[in-house]
Specification:
The chain has about 160 residues and is of the alpha+beta class. The protein is built from two helices and four strands, in the order ααββββ. Bound molecules: calcium ion (2 copies). One calcium ion binds next to loops.
């Protein structure tokens, strides 16, 4: 009887060893998986903060511009004749603009973020319903929307309202 017990407790059985191997394997696999998830989450966080920064650049650039052109008023929606980015002096000059590489608040291309691009939409919205887009220059309220893309993938977007004074 004692003999048998001694034999039985001598070491680990094959099943025990296999279970241990499987458990160690599961532990390693979950460590690797959580590391991959963390790296992905980290990359997504970096993309998002870059996109928000690029949205902020457009906001900063346009915030002091008048809603309509100081010279031609509301004759033209969009850039007035001959105006290029360097001369854009009202909000609707930026309507439909797309910047790749993206630009900073100083209008200079940010070549370090060349894989990103900014898309700007400027739309007049109804005075009684800011969700309702109305004809160009037919209301005093303008909604600016900036979308930021990384390659062709939209990363973030933001909209804000401006009122014509
Ligand atoms: Ca202009
Ligand atoms: Ca204009």
């Amino acid at each position: 009887m004692q003999d048998t017990q001694y034999k039985y407790n001598k070491g680990f059985s094959l099943i025990e060893v296999l279970i241990a191997v499987v458990l160690v394997g599961i532990a390693i696999a979950s460590l690797v998986a959580s590391n991959i998830a963390f790296t992905k989450a980290n990359a997504a966080g970096t993309e998002l903060s870059t996109a928000e920064f690029l949205i902020e650049q457009i906001r900063e650039l346009t915030t002091l511009l008048p809603v309509i052109d100081p010279e031609t008023g509301d004759d033209i929606f969009g850039p007035e004749t001959g105006e290029t980015l360097a001369d854009y002096d009202d909000l609707d000059d930026f309507s439909g603009a797309s910047f790749s590489p993206p630009i900073g608040a100083d209008r200079i291309g940010l070549s370090g973020s060349a894989a990103y691009s900014q898309q700007v939409a400027v739309e007049n919205v109804s005075a009684s319903d800011f969700e309702l887009v109305v004809g160009a220059h037919t209301s005093d309220f303008v909604r600016v929307t900036v979308k930021v893309f990384l390659n062709a993938r939209e990363i973030s977007s933001a909209s804000w309202l401006r009122a014509r004074q």
